[in-house]
Design a protein that fits this description.
heterotetramer; A alpha/beta (327); B mainly alpha (320); C mainly alpha (290); D alpha+beta (568); B: 320 residues; mainly alpha; MetI-like fold; 14 helices; 74% helix; globular; C: 290 residues; 13 helices; 70% helix; ABC transporter ATP-binding protein (chain A)
Chain lengths: 327, 320, 290, 568
Amino acid sequence: MLLSVRNLCVDFHGEDGPFRAVDGVSFDLADGERLAIMGESGCGKSSVALALMRLLEGGGVHVSADHLALDGRSLLTLDARAIRSVRGGEIAMIFQDATTALHPLIPVGAQVVEMIRAHRRLSRSAARTLALSLFQRVGIAAPERRLAAYPHELSGGMCQRVMIAMAIACRPRMLLADEPTTALDVTVQAQIMDLLLDVSAESGMAVILISHDLGVIAGAADRVAVMYAGAIVEIGPTETIYALPAHPYTRALLDTAPRVDIGVGEPLPVIPGNVAGAHALVGCQFAPRCDVAVDRCHSARPPSRRIGDRHEVACWVTTDTAGADAR
Amino acid sequence: MGSLILSRLVQAAVLLIGVSVIGFTLMHLAPGGPLAFYTNSPGVSTADLVQMKHAFGLDRSVAMQYLFWASDMLRGNWGYSFFGGRPVRELVFERLPATFELMGLSMALAMLAGTGIGVVAAVRKDSLFDHLVTLWAMLALSLPTFWYGLLAIFVFGERLGWLPVGGRSTLGAGEDIAGHVTHLVLPVGVLATVIAAQWSRYSRAAILDVLGQDYMRTALAKGLSPLRILIRHGLRSGMLPLIALAGLQLPMLVGGALVTETVFAWPGMGLLFVNALSYRDYPVLMALLMLSALLAVMGNLLADIASALADPRIRLGRSA
Amino acid sequence: MSMGFAHRPRRPVQAGLRRFSRHRFAVVGLLVLLAMTVAALFAPWISPFDPDRIDVAQRYILPLSADHILGTDDLGRDVLSRLLSASRVSLLIGVSAMLMTLIVGFLVGAFAGYCGGWIDAILMRLTDMLLCFPNIFLLLFVAVFVPPSRVSLAALIGLTSWMEIARISHGQIRSLKQRDFLEAARLAGASNVRIIMRQILPNSMTPMLVAAALNTANAILLESYVSFLGYGIQPPQASWGNMLTYAQSEFAIDPWLAVFPGAAIALAVTSLNFIGDGLRDMLDVRLKSR
Amino acid sequence: MRKERRGVAEAASEASGQGYGRRTLLHLTAGGAAIAAFAVGGFSYRFRDRHLAPGQLALSDQCVDAFLHEAVNFNPLLYMEAGPETAVEYSVFDTLWKIDPSGQYVPNLAERIPTVGNGGISSDGLDWTIQLRRDVRWHDGKPFTARDVLFTLRVLMNPAIPVRSRNGQTNVEALSALDEHTVRIRLSRPFAAYMVALERTSIIPEHLLAMEPDLTRAPFNSRPIGTGPFRFQEHIAGDYIAFLPNLDYHGGKPAIGRLIQKYIPDQQTLFAQLQTGAVTVLDGKGIPADLYERSRTDGRFNVVLAPAPYVEFLYFNLGRPQFADKQVRHAIHYAVDRTAWVDQLYYGLPEATLSYLPTSHWAYNHMLKAPPFDLDKARQLLDAAGWLIQSDGVRAKGDVRLTFTCSTAAGEKSREEAQLLLQQNLRDIGMEMAIHNMPGAVVYGDYTTNSEFDMVLVGWDPMFYPDPDYSERVASHLIPAKTGRGANYSQFSHPEVDQLCREGLATLDQEERRRIYWRIQEILLEELPFIPIFSYRSALGVSKQLKNFVPNPYTPCNSWNNAQWRMS
């Protein structure tokens, strides 16, 4: 396994009181595999990504896990220097809005060069040559000129290409793509997704794609993890999830799919109620909004159970039925 | 760049004219006048007053007086003080170095220290250090400087006798740099503390603002060292508003040390201004007002240019 | 919002209040200020003595001795009573100068922002200019020509420090102008004045509230500076500023005379600054801290 | 938004242990460089300017004479601010004769004091012949002659030049030089105060100033050249003026190595400087009254009491209906608590007086009786005069209410406190006195000269002090609000006083004059156009090192004998 996560928890002790954003997430990721994490905004998917990079530590944020390993190396115990070499070197990350994720006062080329030189012993000019070729690789026209451009002189799509160029610069083992296309026009979205898949396939890079866009995920991921209120409620191969969603939440999510395309980033209107605060409830977090919930759902947290080939779900109702079927 | 400067210069000229008209009118509409001081001198007869009024040009209408003053000013003649008859330009320029020294030094020290403190406080937001800095800044800014000045004089000068309490040099000591520095300690200390408190607030806010930006997270995700992130990514944008602010504080060089100069008997512009005010020495007052306005205009322009140079997003030639 | 995480549903007002109350300094500041305001309001009834009554036989009584809790000054007047009476003046000047600042600043900023064009350019450049003068410089320049009184001082301070508010409201209006509801209001046939009062004013209220707290603090400080330079509130009326100024020469005889008004100013100003800070957090407005 | 910031913040703070503070500072240094450059500019300018400072001079030989106000005009005929500018005048310039602390005239530039006895003054008092010393040189080496005296007097008589005072010179009919060193002055009428007028007139050099197109703007005014005991060395505006001893001084070489007139605008700072020894003399108005007690026990310096010719007055505007009634003025006098005023508010520093003269003056009328501080008496007086208390607690008679304002120049603490005390006492007898203080430039402007005030609290000296003449402030033809000249701001008009004033000036016989001025003081205390409170006495702080510092009650400035000052 490239990445192995067991019982990852993220706790915030913010001004609004303590609050658990990620609540016992576990999953594995194989080399070159593409996993999508799907869910509404605020469900904790980005926190998972940031926690993997150890970008959430300190200042009232507490990250814990039974096991969090990249290639068998525990990420949680690395010292500051080692974790820096992981960031960008072994796990790269791209963000939702590339125009704000790039430093506005530094030419984009220099930002890529900076990334390269942070991880590889290359001279300034060699790094620049590499950056140039990366720009060509990610399909930036007139790369020479673009190296010297500032983010505000580039379009959103172009900025995201720069981000991708930066992400693949140090040949990382894994790429965290946090809503990489959300801020883009629909036509550009497709191009960027294609590019992303392209470069990951080419270098054998594993990808964790975080998105609420079912369309994007369908075409890109091998596996899908559905998160709700800080926990993974269902995980399984993409086709299985789309074809036979097991969790009521996944089903509801898929039902609203057409609408998601229209209202980017908006909460799903057809699921009644709001996302509950994680750990606020004793039972299943989704229970208050669930139309098939039974008494047990309100009193006890459902464990994640395997119901098919690499298909796991955390739901009393489904697993009981499925379990019955299996028996 | 050229057109930016040009258009700003035109604006500046218009503004300077406006300021001068308002200042001049205000001054002359006000009760009391420069002759009052002569009146108080029992040897001056009413006929003398009429004569003086004429000599000072005060018997003309305000509009005419303004025109005369303005045309003199444009030709580089700042006029003559009503008291002592010295050329105003001479009066002002002999005071400038003292004020620039006091205020410049205080501002330089305060900006350095204040920015440093503010950056650390921002980086360690909500730490004990941050809270202490906040408390210190609030206290420093909550009492008038003269209070601190008098306290410092009382403690360090009178009681402990460590430092000279006023003036700019040890009299008659010649070129005595050490003596000069000791005279600077208290006034600069008081002024710098207060200005530093302000700057620490500015820079803390600016850095906090930057730390919350997406690109700072990107920099972290790139695996850069925190030091590099703070300096190359954080300060680079955090300093932008501070640079602009520094430019805008340029006029403080003239009027900022008003009270401190009085307390520490510092022979600078502040004292000149306060005295000119109480004597109603119109030519001196106008000169100081215009100088301050000029510095304000320059400060604005410098702030804009500095921002334009430092921030590629501001397109040159268009005012920010 | 680049990163979403679940948050407990809470109404914004509640959340704001909670954020404010988490700002411990701000809460303390608010309590202190409230106490001072109440004391000022009821000063004539809670003052142990007539604040202006001179009794030279009773002068320089030290704090905590005899009937005078905070002692007496060089004319034998009760310091506590004078502080209370002074707080009425100083707080009043602070508040009325602040109101003045708000009104003038808002009108200039709103008018400029709303009209746009050359009116905007002229007004805002003038604002920039005035903002550049050291406040005390400007204030003194005007103060010399106007006899000092409670009203004139408040007006002067107000008239020389409205520029920041103008900038804030100007910025607000420029951004609000982009939004739809103004267009809607205009289409609905609302007059300009009505639009400014009904739409723009409430919408730019929040950042102005923060600036108001800071302005009040500033005005209280300015009053003391003006007093120091001899253009302040006239005797016999006490103000914190003139009490502090008069106490200077007694620093060695009776330092308490300088300590109490100093402490009052520091307390009020610090409280207001913290309240401003707290409000800023609470309303989460990005003020350009100038 | 807030939360991920934490990560960054924390990560950044990891590095703080690795010395990022230093690097940050380096970066910031670059930012502060521009401003630092200003400061450096200040330094270099400063040191270029001070090449004159004598490096070898022993600091112990230097006398620092400190004032609260700054001298700006060094031309003795033109300056306005008595005090520091007078000190410059006394250092750099000479007069024909001086007056010593006993009130005797002492020849200076003149060979001897002209009197009727020695023929210097003709028996009708009109012709004055003055012999000048022949051994006097200007600081630039040119000889001093009768031409300089004539030039000086002509400047004073030239109506086109706004001089400080041309008092006395208006009585001059003709001027001539009998030879290089003899001056003849003919007066149009006998004028006793002319001795004082000349005692007050410093002689300026004709050879340097005769060609000046505009005397008021002459560079001379800031770089004076005189014949006095000290030569002007340098002036650092807002800071100090330095003088070096005039080695050729005709009165003997001054004993101090360097005289510095220091300007310290804040009283507390000034006092602290005296305590730390940075200042040799706390001069001018001296130590503020409220520090007087403490200064006497400080021990680090001597306190020298210097009587000054100023008297603190409450001046009434008799043009106001409230004050037209003499009984009201007397009632107010009963309500003046002179003892508390002098002893408490001024800590016993000044001396109570009942006349416009200090009690030590030769013409002071010692028969004057002070009314007691008696509020009941005041009330009775008002009741008897028909000023009755109205429903609002304020007395009135007809439609005139006893409501008025009292003004003084804002910023003088003891004086403002005295106003408060008076205000309280007057309130107790049914008068409403509002305090209406303004900056000096307003109070002493038209407000005073056009008699626009109700009551002012002022400290004024007689015009020709030490001459007892007071006609300028009491003669009826010198009411500026009516006649356009004079300084009779209270608009007092009393035929007998007018007559006495004329007689007093026309005679040179001191006994006769004493009789006249006694009568004038008697009338003034009865008519009460103003209430004298006390005559000023400054508490000067003087370093124990300074010898021969002797205040002179007859000069407006203590530098009168600074040629004799010596540092031990």
